[in-house]
Amino acid sequence: MSRVNEATRDASRSTPVWDLFVRVFHWSVAVTFGAAYASSDDGGTVHHILGYAVLALVALRIAWGFVGSYHARFANFVPGPRRFAQYTKAMLAGRERRYLGHNPAGGAMIIALLVLLTATGATGWLLTTNAFWGSEAVEALHEACANAVLVCVALHVGGVLLASWRHREDLVGAMLTGRKRND
Predict the structure, then answer these.
(1) What are all long-range contacts of 113-119, with beta carbons under 8 Å and residues at least 24 apart?
(2) Domain at 43, CATH number
(3) Is pTM, for the whole model, over 0.70?
(4) N or C: less crowded end of the chain, CB within 10 Å?
(5) What's residue 117's pLDDT?
């Protein structure tokens, strides 16, 4: 079988889920936040630029959450408390259903990360203003928010690995190609 036929067969078994914007955002914010965190000791210009870049990325993602493709829209994946609790209970029992887009835990994680990234960037910006320059309280809050992002990233990666294993699916690959299997 030729490579073209194999590619056509594989494409017929999968469906587009993550649009290009979502994929570029995902990997860009991961790299940009990671670089900002790594450069936090000096708190210099590079750290500030990276922090503003993260804020810009988050602002674009929030806008895309209202006007983007089906699986990118908040209305299609942000769970209410009841749906989140039901999914979490099923997940802990090993009986959660597979979702083509974000599952309720993933949707909740996205919101948590967007809030924490915004709080990290906003407190970082506050530290550059005359009113909060040198404020130990704001600096502690900035560091706590950045560390909370790392905790959420670890939980996110763990959730991706768990869902990939449970549903026999390459979620990392899906975030690269934008496609997931149909079934």
Answers:
(1) 113/149, 113/152, 113/153, 113/156, 114/58, 114/61, 114/62, 116/145, 116/148, 116/149, 116/152, 117/29, 117/33, 117/54, 117/55, 117/58, 117/149, 118/55, 118/58, 119/145
(2) 1.20.950.20
(3) yes
(4) N
(5) 98
